[in-house]
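Summary for the lay section of the report: proteins are chains of building blocks that fold into shapes. Here we show the chain for DUF4064 domain-containing protein and then a coded description of the shape we predicted for it.
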Amino acid sequence: MKRTAEVVLGIIGALGFALSAAIGGFFLWLQDNRDLVEESMTETGDPTTEFSMEEFEMAMDFLGSGGWVLLISSIAAIVLGIVAMVLLKGNRKPVIAGIIFIATAVIVSIITAGVGIPAGLFYLIAGILCLVRKPKTTLEM
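The coded shape description reads as follows.
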């Protein structure tokens, strides 16, 4: 039985997690460029959007920690997705691949506080397909 649908969904999910990893990397880049962020925040000139230094430091700490969590969990999800797709090759171990897809989708979506949900949906659907689709049985007479 061909597992083309599961592999395609896995690839789309991995690309979604790659986008999440890029967002996490962008957060880390912003944390390293404090001057640029501070300049863009003070450039508006609107007195209602002014931040205290304490609020600014909290926002920068959030960017750093959130960026690392997003980057590491997304890379782990990509690696686990590739492992699951390799297990699907040749229809060797679809049940294990399905469990990996589903567990990765749920855990990464929770860890990333919902940022990984769009990509995780593709992994979840691929995992369900891996578990539900059974090979056709042929009757010999």
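Put simply, here is one thing we learned. DSSP finds five helices and no strands in the chain.
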